[in-house]
Batch of 3 targets.
Target 1
Amino acid sequence: MTFKMINANEAKPGITIVVDGAPCTVKSNDISKTGKHGHMKCRIEAIGVIDGKKRVFVIGGHERIDVPLIEKRKAQVMSIQGDKATVMDLESFETIEIKMEEGVEIKEGGQVEYWKIGEEKVIKRGL
């Protein structure tokens, strides 16, 4: 997975960060004031992009956080089997099997947007 680094106090809602090795979207970042001899603290609440789990953690505001680089690509749906879909990438024309997110409505022959985060791939929405 390719990363860039940001300070914890720069993690605004909507940014994707890595928490416990999983890519997560930041929902809130509560920053506390500094004390007389202390540093600011950030209470970050994030939801996993792939697994949908909620993660909450506290980190120093000056500490660095990994931000994964996400490739957003388009594909055409070839077939659907359960919670997986076989799609053909519209740029490279390779066929791949991708897990679908819950609530995403797609149909065979339609187009979808999928995210590639390192080796993980997930269908985010139908087009």
Target 2
Amino acid sequence: MFGKIVVGLDGSETSENALRLACDLAQKYQSEIHLVHTPQPQTVAFALGAVTGYHAVTTMPSSDKVQAAGEKVLNAGKAVAKECGQEITQTYMDRGDPADRIIACAEGCGADLIVTGRRGLGTVGSLVQGSTTQRVNHLAECACLSVL
């Protein structure tokens, strides 16, 4: 039923829950799992500020720090999958709109299902414009599952 599953990760608890559910489905259907992360400087700045006293309001992180934070999110996702007894087929990390990147990945690999957390680390603007998950659900050409 689900040969390829794309999971959108942002480092939030709900995206980890989405990955765990995707792993459960992958085990049942012998599916490939593809992880997508689109690092956002604002959320990296917030995370750095919450952890190390980084001045998130006045200073945005460098490209290297954004890249390193993105790799950390993907590596954490791989660790969760391994803990669930699953291997990640491929990871994708690119800049841009997270919903667009998730959809592009799903179309590119021929995914049957996209799994995302219902509420992640999106910006305040997402409260006005709509969340990544809402956009994915609206634009994707395959099944979508949002997880709490």
Target 3
Amino acid sequence: MKPLPRTPELLNVARRIVWFKEPGEALADPLHFLAHVMTYGTVEDLIAVQKVVGKEDFCEVLDNPPPGVFDKRSWAYWNLKCGREPAPPLPVRRGLQAEKPGT
């Protein structure tokens, strides 16, 4: 994925949505940043982001989703927007699944 420009609009979106990182650091990882926008972004955030990325970039995030970011609703919505119906299983973090009793 191409790097994202550090525009004032994108830095503001990054500051609000990826609050646990510095805005420039959040933009340096486009897949992670866009996944957060796709899950937690407002309409205004999406308008700002869509000035620099296109549908193919959102679809690329779905090809390489960071586990633990998407919720069921946003995962289903973005897969539908990218023409993927039915949506594949939601990505999960490895090693965090609860062990079954007796295993």
